[in-house]
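Researcher: I'm preparing a figure for a lab meeting and need a structural model of a single chain. I don't have an experimental structure, so a prediction will have to do for now. The sequence is pasted below. Please return the structure as C-alpha cells so I can convert it later.
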Amino acid sequence: MIKEPKRALAPKGAVKKQSMRTVLRSPLVWGALILVLLLSFAAPMVQPILPPYVVELLPDKTNATAVIGWLFFGISAAGAIASVFAGRVIGRIGLQRVLLISAIGVAMFLIPMGFVNSVIALAVLAIVMSLFGGFLTTSAVTLLPTVVTAAALSSMFGLYQSVQALSAQLGPAVGGIIAANISYEAAFFIAAATLIFLGLPMFYIFKRIAAVHKVVEEPHPHQIEKSVDSQTPSTGR
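Model: Understood. Here is the structure written out cell by cell.
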C-alpha cells in the first residue's frame, strides 16, 4: 500500500488561480489580445459579402451555388496550407517579421477585391489573401506563449479563443452593415484600412509594451510548498 500524505503539498486550485491572476495583471497579455483582435478583425468583415458579390459578378441566370462553394473551398485550403508552412517560415525569419508581413499582405489583397470585374480575379485575390491570413493566424497564436509563463498557458489560450470568437462574429456583422448601407467596395476598403491604421500601429505599441514590461513569473512549486508549510500549524508530536 502507498502511504497517502496527510495534507496536500499545495492548496487546491492554487496554480489555476495564480495563473489567471498572472494573465489578467500583465500588460503584455492585454497588448497581445488587443493586437490579435485588431489583426484578425479584417478578414471576417468580407465573409458575408462574398456570396452576393459573386452573384453580382456572374452573368444573369447563372447558378452561383457551385462557384461560391469552390471559392470558399479555395480560401479554406489556402489558409490551411499556409498554416502548415508558417512554423518553418517563422523559425527562419522571425515571428515579428512574419506577423508584420502577413498583416500587410492581407490588407494589400483586400483592397483590389472590391474593384474586380470577374469571379476568377476575385477568387485569385481571395485565395492569396487567405494565404497571408493563414500565416497571420499562426503567428498570432505563436505569440501567446511568449507573454505568459507555462502555468498560465491554459488561461491565455482561453482568452485567445474568446477574442477569436468575438472577431469572427463582430467582423461579419460590421462588414454586412457597411456593404448594405454603402457598397461592396467600401466594405473591402474599410476592412483593409482597419488592418493598416489600427492593427499595424497596435503592433508597434505592443513592441513598446514588450520592451518595458516583463512576463510576470509564477512562484516555483517549492516556493508554494514552503509557503503552505509556514502556514500549517505544527502537530507537536
